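Illustration: Aldo/keto reductase.
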Amino acid sequence: MEQRTLGRTGPEVSALGLGAMGMSAGVYGPADREESLATLHAAVDAGVTLIDTGDFYGMGHNEMLIGEALRGLPREQLVISVKFGALRDPAFGWGGVDNRPAAMRNFVAYSLQRLGVEQIDIYRPARLDPAVPIEETMGALAEMVQAGWIRHIGLSEVGAQTLRRAAAVHPVCDLQIEYSLISRGIEAEILPVARELGIGITAYGVLSRGLISGHWSAGASKAGDFRGMSPRFAADNIDANLALVEALRGVAEARGLSVAQAAIAWVAAQGPDIVPLIGARRRDRLAESLGALETALDAEALAAIAASMPAEAARGARYPAMQMAHLDSEH
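Result:
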């Protein structure tokens, strides 16, 4: 597996990371525990070293699942990335963000216990807390580094100016943010600033929650699936978006790739400072995604892939309006 370094100060990781969110119920519907564990093991066997989770995925379930998997995996070879700060309730509802230093110390204590580790490799607030200056959040994270509870500091879904303010307090190894053929907003300002500051990108949503995987069909959302509320999957948008997928399919198949492989390969090719996170919940989807690394796309192929799904061509925002309004990266 090709290795990439997260920013100037971060760890070396595999060229693809595994996002584990879908392995817990509450976002994409029910999850299969045994298949999730098998997929985690298969990913590591294939050379994946970066595993991404959040303490609020399944209200701690995701961390406990990874902790269980870690007992049979080479911990010293893996980089575990954890997001914190999003508040949940027993009905799977959302209650905002809390990045106060006292809350952060509480969050990290529980994550260390659930994961069964002594140190978290990358720790990051899931979203910017508008009530807490980023300097205060970074200062508390820096203290966690000094205490040995975490190794590196990351950020998620923040804008260029917040990146600058954060990096002035402590080095940031990577910014986790949505980036795909169908979501290219970071290219205007956020990506150039991250590169200027030596901050890597861990790109999530590279298949836009399955929309551009080549496997999605209209009406496929089930109960408990976030996509039932996502604008891009809405009835008045889905047909237009799936037409873009069919255009991508033609370009991909002409080059011996699946739709998902073409979409992942395009993101990976945008720079050695970018590591796509794949949200595979099953071993077959994992194997397909890993196949994206087995082909070298020349400039002509990359241009054809991009042209099949032009920037700004997607119908609908990437999150519902209320969530979009709280994204610092969208301001």
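Reading the tokens back as a structure: The domain at 3-211+268-295 is CATH 3.20.20.100 (TIM Barrel).
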